[in-house]
Structure formats: structure tokens, C-alpha cells
């Protein structure tokens, strides 16, 4: 069965890229525009993996992860953060907030899918 | 299967021209598994991760010259058995004798022909 | 061996780099000789550069080059070993040798050999005299060819091993945070089993009794045995995300356990086992020699397991990035070389893309598409991407100006030698990046300016000493970014422009009226007029039939401007201001008397909508506007460009010129802010004062790009004589009252 992915990014371009790549790989995709929207959609969609940007208006990625980890239903959901550069301190901050892994932008489809596999296992193969 | 198919060689030279010439000669000899490094330090780092059978290193390099690289290789257990050929442009007795003392397997003088390189390598590892 | 053509290309590119290093090193040695701080590495760097050039040249059979480099190298070797002292004379000789070596390389690149040149022989004799060696170049090299110093090759003391799967022992202890961050150890193990055969043993030794058990704590330890043909890097990659969240130790069975690590892997299931001989297949294609000693999971990260980390051997400690690069392919080089034609093709295509984007924007606006609609937002994203692509493409062409500056050092040396003056060049801002074409086209005018500076600017040593200056003249060459342009300055500490003489010559040549009242700046600008030459006799140096007017035209042709500023007794500064790129420009689209024009955004400070009481007439056609307590002249663009029709001029565009003066351009409307593709005007038309270029708008119409500096000069009240001079020069002769303070 296909996994459900929730992708959160305030950039329309990135959202569309994620949607296209993930849909093509056979995942069922939901999109959110910022951290607040992501927390709303989290309850509605019960995703298997969440991919979130860090810099976003209203509620940023760190805030989203903390919010998600505070909820029972999403306490153990793998959350991947999108970071623009491989900045070590950003990864460390994300991990301190509770992120499972990271995807360094610009990403290609292979890296995206492989990161999902690494946190969700091979059953994630679409 | 011929030795040239299985042998792994690393070329170390800070100058991309001479590195290119060395690698081209190895290619002409049919040796396919050739890695390279632009200085002694990165050669050591690479060798720690991916050892080779034979290092062919230039002598004249900044920071760590060929002989210092040889010394470092011989002092580290993981790399001490790697073959070492020094490439040098200067016919300097002192360099060659130091190399010999440190356990250099052979040396190659620049400029060299592909045949000279073949002879030099074969003297160390046997028929290619 | 003769080397393939591409290696030959590489060789010459490398020679350029080495010659640059050589010149840097010589400059440093020169400073040391002059009493600067000691830097022993400089001499070594020079030696290595010459030696490497010689080595490469030898491989290509470039014998003349090898011979010369050898003579050069011999002197350098003696110098660095302290056998001969570094003196000013010797450094000067080394500089000349460096220049000669450059010539040799250039000759070799062009397929010539510099062999027969008597200058070469003379210089080689000089070098040989210094080194005290008989002039038998490269003799040692040639004769020593067969010398083996009694060296007997040593056969490798081991058999070449075939490849084989290796067995890794991995100790994995999960922390509480591993689970808290959404990780599942089973998924990691699944990933490991994808790269080899995995055995998993779990230990619950740390598991407390149920009363004290914290359900969210990680109590389990795993001992994994992985047999794989992949290397350590592949294993470390699997653990990338959990680094720091678990204690991980990876050890290859072929190695001894690191000292101090026994505490971790004392368990029987991960004790080193004898290597299974059956796994060693002989003579297979991808031989994998013994792997290295244990390394940490990621070399650049904090230690995962402190005991293991502290015990890691130095080789792996000093190997940042080794783990990532350990897979198989040789590491990619940090640079690639691309044919310039391809880059230019790309730049042209991007230019077209920008034009088409503007056209689409126009069509969308005409179709009444709302900007907050899906199409509008999508187009917005497209526009952002386009400008990003454009920026990145332009950056490909940008190059540091350093090589050009280094060439200029030679020009100054040669000019000083010919004119019998002592001069040194100081450079600054060598890292400043400028479009490659700009750099190329700058070489000739800059050469001329520098020759001029030595020839006409600097005084002779005697005169300098008499004037209380150091005997050696200094010429400074600098590059900086200013107002979105690159400004290159050539400053000499010479006598300054002799304005009386300039004026007299201009009158004699009929360039100005003898009665004309010229400001100092106007006199200085006479130097740029066609047909002007101050040299009473054509000197071998700056003469060459080219005047400063040609320099000025060349600079203008690449969108640049040149100005001159001189202080008697103190010297002269020539400033060249250049666009960063020749292809695009951020501009504000304005409307003047029904014409759409473009003002470069870099010049615009702000836009104003003044009330009637803000504008004051100070003469029949001169008005000023008060902007926050400063008075700024108003420039009527319609009048400047002689446009017919009426202009409402409700809006003022406050601009700042490179000479740091502010003006208010009166326009009818501000239409848009947009990136425009520069299309040269002079190719199709002539140079129009006040206009730098043209562009194509979204609707396909042509719009002229205003050069604010020139445009305000057109409007500035200057004397009729000076008008010719000032036509395209900075209007530094503005009435003081109108020149606002910054």
C-alpha cells in the first residue's frame, strides 16, 4: 500500500516539486503552506512521513516539529526537514527539536525518495 | 586474469599536468583502477578509506613532499605495505637514498615514456 | 611522451596559475628584501612554480623552456638554501627571469620556441653568472638520465589480494532521543541488510525491572554482524540520521580492535572471528584491499562513542570527508572547464528568456490576469527563477581581476626600465570579480594608462628626491565595487598634471579658444580629447600613436567611464568605472513625453512626488527641489533628449551619480521596475550622449537606457568650450550651491 506523505513548504515552487516527485513515486501526498497549516493537516491526514521546510511564516519548521512531537498521534512520525544548505547547526537544531532526518536542497527525486526510505523503511517503496 | 586488471594504483601529484601524464600512461598500460590525490595529506585520507596496492607519487609537492608521504605511509600500519614509486625530475642522490632508506619500492624519472613506466611498475609488482 | 592535446591545454592553464604564484612570491621576496617581514615559504613557492613548469615542459619536449627554467631554478635553489644572498639587484633579475619565463610559456603555447632570441641567451648568462655555474643548462638532467644511484627496485612484499566481502561488527545502542525523533532501529537494520548479509543479536542487559522502566527510554543494545562487499562509507551512510542519537561503533574484522574500545565490544557475539578464507576470491576484477582502521561514523561530527573516537588512529582522524567519498568513484574536481562559447550561448538564451518573460507579463496584464490568481502567482515564481538563473549564469563569466593586475606589474617594470625611472606597483582589490570580456578589453587601455603614469606621471628619481619624495615612485592600481559598478583606479604619486602646459598645447592645437575660462577639471579633461598629446617628442612608451582619447573610447565601448583627478605635486588619479556585466541591468521604466526609457536602478536613490512649494526656479531654465534640507538640481529629461510633446513632470527620480552628486530627474510617470537585456546602441547607431544602450520591452518596443551621469552632464550649465570636453565626463564643475552634500 502506498504511504501518505505530508509536505509542508511556504514556497509554491517547492510544494509543486515535492508533489510532482512524490506523486510520481506512488505516494499519496498532502500539502500544507506553513507550520500552522501543517499541524492542522497532521490530524486530518495521519501521514506516515512528514517533510517540512524550516523557514516559514506564522509557524516555522522547528515550531511545527515541536508541536507535532507534543501530540500523541504524531509523537513517533518520521519528520524530514528540508534545509537549504548542509549547515551543521541547522541540522543539529532540527534534531534537537525532534526531526528524524534531513534533505538538503536542491534535492532530486532520488535523494528525496532515498531519505524517505531511510526513515520509513523499504515498505515506503511506492 | 592479468594483474593490470586487478591492481589498484593511486597517483599523487599536485600539478594536474604531470598527474594527467601519469594517469594517461597508466591508462595506456591498460591499468583501469587508478585513483589520484593532489597532495600528500589528501592521499593519506583517501588511502585510509580506500587502500590501493601501489602509490605513484611526485617528489616535489607543497607541504608534504613525496618522501614525507612515503614516511607517513610506512609509519601507519594500515598503509605500511602499500608499494611506493617516487617520480622525480631531479637526479638527486640524496632523494633516492632517503627514499631507499624509507622503503621506496622504485623511482621514475621525469620525463618518462610509457615503456619506462611499465618497466618501473613491473619491477615492483611483476608482469602486468 | 607527447601528451594528448587536452593535457597540453591543462598544462598551459596550470602554467598561468604557476606564473601567478611566481609573481606573488617574487613580490613577497621583494618586500622582504626591502625590510618586510620574513616569509621563507615565498621562496619555496617560487622555486616550486619554476620547477613545476620545467617538469611539465620536459614532458612535452619544450626544450628551450626547460633550459631556461633550469637556469632560473638553479639560482632559486641557491637562494633558498642561503648560498647566495637576496639583494635588490638579484630580485630585479628574478623578476626579469619571471617575465622571460612567461614569454617562453607564451611562445610554447603558440607553438613557437624562444630558442634563438639573444635576449634569452643574455639573461641565461646573467643567471649562470649569479649561480656561478658553467653555462651548461639542464646538463645534470640530461646526463643523469641513466644514473640509478645503485637503486635496486623492491618487489612488493605481499601478494595482490583479490576482493572479498568483509565482515563488519557494529555495536548499536539506542538512546531515548532516537525514538523521540521518530527513528526505528529496525528500519536501520533493514537498510543494512540491503547492502549485505546481516546478523542481529540483541542484548537487554540494560533493561531494568518493570517498576523502574521508562517506556520511552532506549534500553536495548544490538550487536550486528554485516558481511558486505561495500565499504565502511556505505554503512556510515545508513547511520547518518541517527548520529548523535545512538552509540554506534563500526569495526572491520580484519583490524585489531582499537585500544580502549574493549569495553564496548567485549561481548562474545562480536569478538573478532578468524577471517573465513572462502570469502577471499582470487584475482577478481574489483580488488578491495584491506580497509582502514575504525573511524567514527562521520569524521566531522562530534564523537558518537567517546571511547571509540579517542582511540581512532590519526589517519582516519585527519580524513574529513573520507567516509562520504569512500564509495568508489574518484572524487569530482571542484571546477570544470567550459568552452566560453557555450557560456555565451547560454547567456544569450537567458537574455531572450528575460525578454520573453517580459512579453508574457505584458500579455497577462492585457488579458486582465490578477496577480494574486494562480496564474499570476505561478508567473511570479517563474520570474523569480528567471532572475536567479540569470544571476547565476552571469556569475559564470565573472573572474577575479588579479591576472590582469599581475600583467600590469610587468608593464610598470618595463616602462620604468625604459624611461630610467624607479617605480613600483601596488595593487589592491585583486579578488574583485569582473566580467571576462570586460577584463579582456580592459587590458589595452589599462596598459596605456600605466605606461602614461610612469612616463608622464612620475618624475625622475633626482627630481623626486629634490621635491622631498622617496626616490622610487609608487603607482597604485586598485579595484573596488561602487554603486553596482566596478571602479578601477590608477594613482601615481608623481608631479600631477601640468595644467599650464596642457592649456598651452590645447590652444596651440586649436582645441580651445585662447580666451576660454576653464576650470581645473575641464583642463584635465582636455587630455581625453582626440588629437591631444602632451609629449613634446613621441616617447617609445606611451606614444605608440595612441592617445588618451582612444583609451576613453575603448572604455566607453564596454559601458565604462573614465575620469581624471590631479593634485599638483601629489600625483594623478585616473578612475575607470565599469559595469559588472555587459548583458543585463535592473532598471526603472519611466515615461518622458510619451517615450518609455530605462534608468539603471543602481543610480536611483528614491522617487519623489514634490508639491509646488518644494520646487524653486533659480534661473530661466534651472530649477531645484528641496529634499529633506538639501537642495538638488532638477533635470528635465524631455529637454535633455530634445523630445517633442508636453511633459507633466509630476514625478522626480532622485539619482546619485558616481561622482556622488544628486540630481532629480523630472519624469511623467514611473511604469515598472524590471530587468532589461542590454542591446548595444552604437553597433546600430552612433553614441548618443546621455544614453548608454537600448533594450527591448515586453511589448516589443525599443526603450533607451539612460546614463544618468551623462544625462545630467547634458543639462548642466557649462561653458560652450567645456561642453565638448564634458560631453561624456562627470560634471564635477557643478555650481557649488547646487551640489548637495551627501
Provide the residue-averaged pLDDT of chain A: 83
Helix-strand topology string of chain A: EHEHEHEHEH
Quickly count the helices of chain A.
Answer: 5
Strand content of chain A: 15-25%
Which topology of chain B does CATH recognise?
A: Rossmann fold
Query: In angstroms, what is the radius of gyration of chain B?
Result: 13 Å
**Which parts of chain B are unreliable, with pLDDT below 50 for 5 consecutive residues or more?**
none
Strand order of the largest sheet of chain B: 2-1-3-4-5
Shape of chain A: globular
In short:
By secondary structure, chain B is α/β, with parallel strands linked by helices. Helices cover 46% and strands 20% of the residues of chain B. The termini of chain B are close together.
What is the secondary structure topology, with strand pairs?
The complex is a heterotrimer of chains A (126), B (128) and C (742).
Chain A: E1 4-8, H1 12-24, E2 28-32, H2 35-45, E3 49-53, H3 61-69, E4 79-83, H4 88-97, E5 101-104, H5 109-120
Parallel strand pairs in A: 1-2, 1-3, 3-4, 4-5
Helix pairs in contact in A: 2-3
Chain B: H1 3-6, E1 8-12, H2 16-28, E2 33-37, H3 40-49, E3 54-58, H4 66-75, E4 83-88, H5 93-102, E5 106-109, H6 114-125
Parallel strand pairs in B: 1-2, 1-3, 3-4, 4-5
Helix pairs in contact in B: 3-4, 4-5
Chain C: H1 5-33, H2 40-59, H3 63-80, H4 88-109, H5 118-131, H6 139-143, E1 166-174, H7 176-180, H8 185-193, E2 197-203, E3 221-228, H9 232-238, E4 246-252, H10 306-311, H11 314-317, H12 340-366, H13 374-397, E5 398-400, H14 402-419, E6 423-428, E7 433-435, H15 436-457, H16 461-466, E8 473-482, E9 485-492, H17 499-508, H18 520-525, H19 548-557, E10 561-567, E11 571-579, E12 584-592, E13 595-600, E14 604-608, E15 615-617, E16 623-627, E17 630-636, H20 637-640, E18 651-656, E19 662-667, E20 669-677, E21 691-696, E22 702-706, H21 708-715, H22 720-726
Parallel strand pairs in C: 6-8, 13-22, 17-19
Antiparallel strand pairs in C: 1-3, 1-4, 2-3, 5-7, 8-9, 9-11, 10-11, 12-13, 12-20, 14-18, 15-16, 16-17, 18-19, 21-22
Helix pairs in contact in C: 1-2, 1-4, 2-3, 3-4, 3-5, 4-5, 12-13, 14-15, 15-19
Amino acid at each position: 500500500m502506498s504511504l501518505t506523505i505530508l509536505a509542508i513548504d511556504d514556497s509554491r515552487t517547492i510544494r509543486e516539486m515535492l508533489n510532482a516527485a512524490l506523486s510520481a513515486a506512488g505516494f499519496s501526498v498532502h500539502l500544507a503552506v506553513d507550520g500552522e497549516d501543517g499541524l492542522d493537516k497532521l490530524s486530518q491526514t495521519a501521514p506516515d512521513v512528514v517533510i517540512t521546510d524550516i523557514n516559514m511564516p506564522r509557524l516555522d519548521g522547528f515550531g511545527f516539529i515541536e508541536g507535532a512531537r507534543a501530540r500523541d498521534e504524531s509523537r513517533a512520525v518520521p519528520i524530514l526537514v528540508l534545509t537549504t544548505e548542509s549547515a551543521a547547526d541547522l541540522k543539529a537544531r532540527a534534531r534537537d527539536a525532534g526531526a528524524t532526518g534531513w534533505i538538503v536542497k536542491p534535492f532530486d527525486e532520488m535523494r528525496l525518495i532515498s531519505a524517505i526510505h531511510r526513515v520509513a523503511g523499504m515498505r515506503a517503496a511506492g | 586474469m592479468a594483474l593490470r586488471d586487478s591492481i589498484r594504483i593511486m597517483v599523487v601529484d599536485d600539478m594536474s599536468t604531470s598527474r594527467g601524464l601519469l594517469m594517461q600512461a597508466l591508462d595506456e598500460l591498460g591499468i583501469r583502477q587508478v585513483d589520484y590525490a593532489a597532495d600528500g595529506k589528501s592521499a593519506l585520507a583517501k588511502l585510509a578509506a580506500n587502500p590501493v596496492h601501489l602509490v605513484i607519487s611526485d617528489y616535489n609537492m607543497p607541504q608534504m613532499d613525496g618522501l614525507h608521504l612515503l614516511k607517513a605511509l610506512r609509519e601507519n600500519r594500515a598503509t605500511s605495505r602499500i608499494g611506493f614509486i617516487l617520480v622525480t625530475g631531479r637526479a638527486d642522490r640524496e632523494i633516492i637514498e632517503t627514499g631507499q632508506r624509507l622503503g621506496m619500492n622504485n623511482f621514475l624519472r621525469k620525463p618518462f615514456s610509457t615503456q619506462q613506466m611499465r618497466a618501473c611498475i613491473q619491477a615492483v609488482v611483476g608482469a602486468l | 611522451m607527447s601528451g594528448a592535446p587536452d593535457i597540453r591545454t591543462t598544462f598551459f592553464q596550470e602554467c598561468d596559475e604557476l606564473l601567478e604564484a611566481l609573481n606573488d612570491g617574487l613580490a613577497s621576496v621583494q618586500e622582504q628584501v626591502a625590510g618586510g617581514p620574513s616569509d621563507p615559504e615565498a621562496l619555496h613557492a617560487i622555486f616550486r612554480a619554476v620547477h613545476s613548469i620545467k617538469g611539465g615542459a620536459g614532458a612535452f619536449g619544450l626544450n628551450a623552456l626547460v633550459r631556461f627554467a633550469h637556469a632560473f631554478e638553479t639560482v632559486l635553489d641557491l637562494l633558498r638554501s642561503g648560498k647566495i644572498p637576496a639583494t635588490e639587484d638579484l630580485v630585479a633579475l628574478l623578476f626579469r627571469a619571471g617575465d622571460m619565463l612567461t614569454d617562453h610559456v607564451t611562445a610554447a603555447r603558440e607553438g613557437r620556441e624562444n630558442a634563438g632570441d639573444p635576449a634569452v641567451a643574455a639573461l641565461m648568462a646573467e643567471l649562470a653568472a649569479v649561480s656561478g655555474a658553467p653555462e651548461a643548462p639542464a646538463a645534470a638532467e640530461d646526463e643523469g638520465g641513466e644514473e640509478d644511484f645503485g637503486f635496486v627496485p623492491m618487489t612488493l612484499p605481499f601478494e595482490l589480494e583479490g576482493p572479498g566481502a568483509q565482515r563488519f561488527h557494529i555495536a548499536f545502542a539506542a538512546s531515548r532521543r532516537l525514538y523521540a525523533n521518530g527513528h526505528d532501529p529496525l528500519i536501520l537494520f533493514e537498510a543494512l541488510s540491503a547492502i549485505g548479509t546481516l546478523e542481529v543479536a540483541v542484548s537487554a542487559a540494560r533493561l531494568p525491572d518493570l517498576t523502574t522502566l521508562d517506556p520511552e527510554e532506549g534500553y536495548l543494545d544490538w550487536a550486528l554482524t554485516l558481511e558486505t562487499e561495500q565499504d565502511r562509507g556505505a554503512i556510515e551512510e545508513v547511520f547518518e540520521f541517527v548520529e548523535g542519537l545512538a552509540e554506534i561503533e563500526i569495526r572491520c574484522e580484519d583490524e585489531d580492535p582499537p585500544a580502549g574500545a574493549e569495553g564496548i565490544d567485549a561481548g562474545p557475539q562480536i569478538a573478532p572471528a578468524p577471517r573465513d578464507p572462502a570469502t577471499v576470491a582470487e584475482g577478481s576484477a574489483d580488488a578491495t584491499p584491506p580497509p582502514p582502521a575504525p573511524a567514527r561514523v562521520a569524521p566531522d561530527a562530534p564523537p558518537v562513542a567517546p571511547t571509540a573516537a579517542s582511540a581512532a588512529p590519526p589517519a582516519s582522524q585527519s580524513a574529513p570527508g573520507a567516509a562520504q567519498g569512500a564509495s568508489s568513484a574518484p572524487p569530482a574536481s571542484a571546477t570544470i572547464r567550459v568552452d566560453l562559447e557555450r557560456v555565451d550561448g547560454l547567456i544569450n538564451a537567458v537574455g531572450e528568456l528575460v525578454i520573453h518573460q517580459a512579453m508574457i507579463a505584458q500579455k497577462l496584464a492585457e488579458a486582465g490576469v490578477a496577480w494574486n490568481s494562480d496564474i499570476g502567482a505561478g508567473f511570479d515564481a517563474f520570474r523569480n527563477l528567471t532572475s536567479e538563473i540569470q544571476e547565476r549564469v552571469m556569475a559564470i563569466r565573472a573572474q577575479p581581476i588579479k591576472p590582469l593586475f599581475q600583467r600590469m606589474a610587468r608593464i610598470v617594470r618595463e616602462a620604468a626600465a625604459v624611461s630610467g625611472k624607479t617605480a613600483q606597483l601596488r595593487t589592491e582589490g585583486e579578488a574583485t570579480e569582473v566580467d571576462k570580456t570586460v577584463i579582456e578589453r580592459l587590458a589595452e587601455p589599462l596598459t596605456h594608462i600605466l605606461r602614461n603614469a610612469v612616463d608622464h606621471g612620475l618624475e625622475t628619481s633626482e627630481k623626486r628626491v629634490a621635491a622631498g619624495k622617496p626616490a622610487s615612485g609608487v603607482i597604485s592600481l586598485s579595484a573596488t565595487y561602487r554603486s553596482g559598478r566596478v571602479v578601477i583606479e590608477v594613482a601615481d604619486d608623481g608631479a600631477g598634471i601640468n595644467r599650464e602646459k596642457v592649456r598651452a598645447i590645447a590652444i596651440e592645437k586649436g582645441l580651445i579658444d585662447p580666451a576660454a575660462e576653464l576650470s581645473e577639471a575641464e583642463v584635465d579633461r582636455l587630455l581625453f580629447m582626440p588629437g591631444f598629446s602632451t609629449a613634446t617628442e613621441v616617447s617609445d612608451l606611451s606614444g605608440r600613436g595612441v592617445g588618451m582619447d582612444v583609451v576613453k573610447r575603448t572604455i566607453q565601448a564596454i559601458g565604462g567611464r573614465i575620469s581624471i583627478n590631479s593634485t599638483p605635486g601629489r600625483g594623478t588619479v585616473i578612475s575607470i568605472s565599469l559595469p559588472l556585466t555587459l548583458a543585463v541591468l535592473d532598471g526603472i521604466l519611466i515615461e518622458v513625453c510619451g517615450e518609455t526609457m530605462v534608468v539603471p536602478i543602481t543610480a536611483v536613490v528614491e522617487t519623489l512626488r514634490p508639491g509646488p512649494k518644494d520646487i524653486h526656479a533659480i534661473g530661466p531654465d534651472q530649477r531645484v527641489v528641496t529634499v529633506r534640507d538639501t537642495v538638488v538640481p532638477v533635470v528635465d529629461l524631455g529637454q535633455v533628449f530634445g523630445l517633442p510633446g508636453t511633459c507633466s513632470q509630476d514625478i522626480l527620480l532622485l539619482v546619485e551619480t558616481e561622482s556622488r552628486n544628486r540630481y532629480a530627474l523630472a519624469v511623467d510617470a514611473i511604469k515598472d521596475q524590471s530587468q532589461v537585456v542590454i542591446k548595444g546602441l552604437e553597433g546600430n547607431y552612433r553614441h548618443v550622449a546621455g544614453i548608454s544602450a537600448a533594450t527591448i520591452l515586453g511589448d516589443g518596443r525599443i526603450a533607451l537606457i539612460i546614463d544618468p551621469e551623462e544625462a545630467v552632464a547634458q543639462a548642466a550649465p557649462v561653458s560652450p568650450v567645456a561642453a565638448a570636453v564634458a560631453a561624456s565626463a562627470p560634471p564635477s564643475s557643478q555650481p557649488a550651491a547646487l551640489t548637495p552634500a551627501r
